[in-house]
Amino acid sequence: PWQPMALLPTRAALAVVAAALCDATAQGQLVTANGTLHQDYFLTWSMAQSEPEDAYIVNVMESIFDHWPRITMTSKARMRTSMHLMRWMSRVGVPGDFAEAGVWRGGHALFMKIVAEYVYMLYGSLRRVWLLDSFFGFGSGNAGLDLVFNGVNNSAEGWEPVVDLFRSAEQLHENVMIMRGYYKDSLHRIPAVLEFALLRIDCD
């Protein structure tokens, strides 16, 4: 089991901000849990989009999307983006785990987990999939901060439904790392030496 490791709050915040900047600039850089950036990999949008689409994964995506918006509000286009990025990173050997910051009911995180298992069969190197969320929104005292999008309340309803979703899909494996709490608290429990190949940020 992971042992909690002390991180400076500023470094934990930097890891998230740096990942967001990497996504915005399409640099494909690696971010460690202490905020370190690596520039060994350069990823362009066209490179990611050129990855082939496997019928199995597309069927999984369609199956999850059939339950929209009950378990996810992610669009097919964004799910495809995750699929292409995860496959490209696995094929070229970008080290690090996959993570989602902002899990809600777990539909997209489940998709990432299934894709992670699939690219492991193709290229080896099984990665952990981290689920980062408070799982209770902003709390009862700040209920007004939880937004309604597409007619659906974005506030989380606990982490148990996410666990049940993964269990029902037979994907609740030991490489699924669920980190409950606000990021300023949960990131402290991630080992400082950890690298994220992909950190998907979809949160308030």
Overview of this structure, please?
With 204 residues, the protein is of the alpha/beta class. Helices cover 39% and strands 15% of the residues. Strands 2-1-8-3-4-7 form a 6-stranded mixed sheet, with helices on both faces. It is built from 7 helices and 8 strands.
Tell me the number of helical segments per DSSP (H or I, 4 or more residues long).
7
Gap between N and C termini? 30 Å
Low-confidence parts lasting 5 or more residues at pLDDT below 50? 1-34
Largest sheet: 6 strands, mixed
- The level of helicity is 25-40%
Provide the gyration radius in Å.
Answer: 16 Å
The shape is: globular
Adjacency order of strands in the biggest sheet = 2-1-8-3-4-7
Structural class: alpha/beta
Average pLDDT across residues?
76
Name the beta content range. Answer: 15-25%
Order of helices and strands: HEEHHHEHEEEHEHE
Number of strands: 8
What keyword list fits this structure?
204 residues, alpha/beta, two-stranded antiparallel ribbon, 7 helices, 8 strands, globular
Question: Can you summarize this structure?
Answer:
The chain is α/β, with parallel strands linked by helices and 204 residues long. It is built from seven helices and eight strands, in the order H-E-E-H-H-H-E-H-E-E-E-H-E-H-E.
Topology at a glance:
Layout: H1 9-25, E1 30-32, E2 37-38, H2 45-49, H3 55-65, H4 76-92, E3 97-101, H5 107-123, E4 129-133, E5 148-149, E6 152-153, H6 160-168, E7 176-180, H7 183-186, E8 195-201
Parallel strand pairs: 3-4, 3-8, 4-7
Antiparallel strand pairs: 1-2, 1-8, 5-6
Helix pairs in contact: 3-4, 3-5, 4-5
